Amino acid sequence: MKHFVQLSQIPRSPDYDYCVIGGGPAGLIAAHELSRRGETLLLEAGAASPESSYSELRAATTDSVLVSDHGVHPANPWTLRGPGGGMERYAGILVRYRAQDFDRSAAFAHASADPRWPIGYEDLRPYYDEVERRFGIARTTGLDPTEPPSCAPLLPPHPPSARAELINEAFDELGIGHFPTPLGVNSRPFARRPACTRCGPCNETLCRTGAKASVLPLVLGSGSEHRLRLAHAVTAEALRVDPSGRVSAVECLDTVRGRHATIRARHFVIAAGALNSCALLLRSTSRLHPHGLANGNDQVGRGIQFKLTGYADVRAPASAQLRESPTLFSTTATTDFYHRLPGGGCGGFLYEASASDRPDTIRLHFVVSETPMAENSVAPAPSSADGPNVVIRHRTHRSDLRRLRSLRSIAVDTLARIGRGVRAQEEFNATGMAHLAGGCRAGTDPRTSVVGPEGRLHQCDNVYVADSAYFPYAAAANPTMTVIANALRISRQLAQHS
């Protein structure tokens, strides 16, 4: 990617107005917004390598350790490292959190970390709408019982796949409502992107035609009028505090040249991925912050949340006329069990999840949210040349397991209407992780949170957290749209007041 260059090729300005750490969707949208206001530098740890496969990119960053109910395993603390982050290889699912997701305190009274956001859906709604206007989302309206207020759909939904038609018939037999999965994949030309031709599988691959929405092309095509410089293969090691208590610089490593560098800026925005954003703050020790930046109350790294998920699948009956190999990952979904499951408790999201390597298989993905628990944490590993970079400690709350298995049963019952021999498996992020959140949780009380509603650290007034580390509660819905909308909100407010 010619727009991303090595740090040695960046003009060494003595001071930037803004330094953004992390080049995933949150960091990119923040840097794009801030560059309208002042000189902005974005530092991305991953190298620009679009030719690499998803599995190669994942394997390259399995450099941490997860200590969990299932033992001690190698772990990947990134959704995907590299310019664009996980959105470059995502399935295209773009959904909003529901209004209730911003205050789930009643459903999670047993949580040891407060699930309440310091903002509500209406605070984020204009940014959700703006994200939709920028990228386009192929969806319908009126069929999703949990659908929050929003702008009118800009693109018609994608028609159901042959597999989704069978799922929908099974849903109908069981009295389960359904609707086309909202996708950031053009159903007709929009925003200078072509319509999807269903030329190949969407999930874990780059889009061949550019029909799939992503923040990276928006930033790379923003034009020279934006004062933005992009550097890849740069690891942020620590933030440095001056005698006044403000962060004045980031110490980083140019991994191509193997050289350390110091970058100065007036304001810093952290968007390194939830776990690595926490680790960066904890590595940033000083006389004023001996236990890590903004960690005076031992809150940084606490309350991390994973995606609790699984898949159920069945072989298509011989009579089924599957017209095509799987291309779009998902074209039908239900939220009938999103707010509450039959056995009680906050519910989850259930949707078609086609497997591109199994064209005769019909598959459902079931996802529930996780109880925010303060004891689930992340921290930098003790220094060791050959050891892990990050240590993650996590256990799954028993109530979450009950809810996951309840939604799994619904998925199995649905597929049993289609064929025999349904298989189902739960996933617990033993070696790889996605939809990570928490650790720099937002709130109004500095004793129990790391950042305020505007994303600014309680204990340092020129550093902001703009990625999913901000989330006090990560809902069952896919988080990408909320990550982008909240990062847009945080960066715009910063630009306006700095």
UniProtKB/TrEMBL annotation:
Residues 385-487 form the Glucose-methanol-choline oxidoreductase C-terminal domain. The keyword Chloroplast does not apply. It comes from Streptomonospora nanhaiensis. This is GMC family oxidoreductase. InterPro entries: FAD/NAD-bd_sf (IPR036188), GMC_OxRdtase_N (IPR000172), GMC_OxRtase_C (IPR007867), P2Ox-like (IPR051473). Its cofactor is FAD. Keywords: FAD, Flavoprotein, Oxidoreductase. Gene3D superfamilies: FAD/NAD(P)-binding domain. Residues 183-305 form the Glucose-methanol-choline oxidoreductase N-terminal domain. Pfam families: GMC_oxred_C (PF05199), GMC_oxred_N (PF00732). The keyword Oxidoreductase applies. Belongs to the GMC oxidoreductase family.
